[in-house]
Specification:
The protein has strands at residues 8-11, 20-27, 32-35, 40-45, 55-60, 63-64, 68-70, 81-85, 91-95. The chain is mainly beta and 103 residues long. It has two domains: 1-68, SH3 type barrels (Roll), CATH 2.30.30.30; 72-103. The protein is elongated and about 55 Å long.
Length: 103
């Protein structure tokens, strides 16, 4: 997976195009990511138990992974990710533009 929980991403397609946000959840089986405060949808919920709020609730819906691009921590530009092996054998993600290790 090129994108992980906690990464900063740029949305490159859809109604949220051009905005940056932090990844909240990754769904690898479906190739989707959930980003904090993005792609909000309204769900009509019934109260279930005592802790659940009833009514119209806004929540984030997942975006397809092809619509987001990882933002490098060092150069602050959206970039593709390449994988690299360190001398100790660990596999790390690397920014393709500035060659900085992301992990």
């Amino acid at each position: 997976m090129n994108i992980r929980k906690g990464d900063t991403v740029l949305v490159i397609g859809g109604k949220e195009k051009g905005r940056r946000g932090k990844v909240e959840k990754v769904l690898p089986e479906e190739n989707r990511v959930t980003i904090e405060g993005f792609n909000l949808v309204v769900r009509h919920m019934r109260p279930t138990g005592q802790a659940r709020q009833a009514g119209r609730i806004q929540k984030e819906a997942p975006l397809h992974m092809s619509n987001v691009m990882l933002v490098c921590n060092k150069c602050s530009r959206p970039t593709r990710v390449r994988s690299n092996r360190l001398e100790d054998g660990r596999k790390v993600r690397e920014c393709q533009k500035c060659r900085e290790t992301i992990d």
